[in-house]
Amino acid sequence: MTDRAPLSEDEIEAQKRVPAKALYATYGVGLTSNALVTMMKVIVPLWAVRIGMSPGEIGLAMGAAGLLPFILSIHGGTLMDRLGTRRITLIFAAVSTVVMLLYPAMPWIAMLFLLQLLSGFTTNMGWMGAQALIVQFGRGNTGMIAKFSLATRIGTVSAPILIGIIWDVAGPWGAFLFAGLVAAGVVVSTFLVPKPLAEAELEEAPRDIRFKELVPRVADYIQAFSMIAIPAVAFIVAVTYLRIASSAMQGSFYVVYLEGIGYTGTLIGVLLAMSEGGGLFGTLIAKPMEKLMAPHWVLIIFIALSILFIAVTPYLGGIFALLLIASTFRGSAQGLCQPVMFAVLSRAVSRKEQGMSIGLRTTANRLATIMVPTVMGFIVEWTTIEDSFWIVGGTLIVACGVVALVVRRLPGFKT
User: Fold this and answer.
1) Helices and strands of the chain, counted as H and E runs
2) Does any domain span residue 414?
3) pTM for this entry
4) Cβ burial, residue 264 (10 Å; 0-12/13-18/19+)
5) 3-state helix, strand, coil in the chain (%, to 5)
6) Residue ranges making up the domain that contains 168
7) Domains in the chain: how many in total?
8) Are 303 and 242 in contact (CB under 8 A)?
9) Percent of the chain with pLDDT over 70
10) 1 in a domain, yes or no?
């Protein structure tokens, strides 16, 4: 991409001035917030099956987690730009800690929908805060952002195995209590980010939060969506949707399918953990891969592969070894794309708009988490759960091909 400008001397010096404490705390925010998201992918579908929900209801419930983030992520990113990433992340992480404990206390279908709305938004804001912090500190440095992605993968590798074991041993109460402890870890990690450094991106001294600032502004949404006029941003929004779509498949009917063929919470956790473990490898080779080919081709090729490896799930005969291999390859492709996306996005927009750009990316992200489980749920109702994988997966791979054709004609992209 020709709009990939090299870092200025001031930006290089700014990266050198970021203290280790700030970076490690930011890595901690990424580790705990992403681990929490991964845990919910395991225990919420299992909880939905436990309380007797139908496939259509499960799809709607899993999609509900993305509804408020889809509507309010741009506003949340704007709040971070305006009032400080650290402050906003702390607030939502604290709320998330409480929400985790309400799941087993209220075992009703209607309440599950409500809790999915709340937890989907609060956990999303925690992950957005982590991304905004590393984009602010990394400023386009793929190597630094890759270390952040590595930290998040460490959390998500251990999280599904731990939560799966806890589910099998201690049941829903033990699993959701542990998720609450991880949410508290987001609070602690965010608190450890040095306050002065976190607020250095603000144009003026931090001020008290006023009610009117919490209300979404139409102007902010217009400004955010106008960023799509930047070819690099438009591309990232498109591939973000496609990338997270495979995660939406894995975090919903992948778990339901495995539970249906007799897999325990522990074994399901192991398969999800191997996906995240593959992501560790992918993260490590992100920077070298970016040197071999243009970033847009890295993203399109490996996102298509990540979709393929989840779409073949029902056709692996329920054989654990094959499922393990497919999950690992999917995670590797997925993990490779994350730091490349963050780096491209951070180069394309100014530092004052980083939170808003993360919000825009997250909007596309959450649109996928709404649509994919919902569509899969209805396909399962109409056909079978096996058919839902190839129908949805095949459609998404075709969409990757369409993006590739469009990219070749966009200004600013090189072959």
Assistant:
1) 18, 0
2) no
3) 0.72
4) middle
5) 85, 0, 15
6) 9-407
7) 1
8) yes
9) 84
10) no
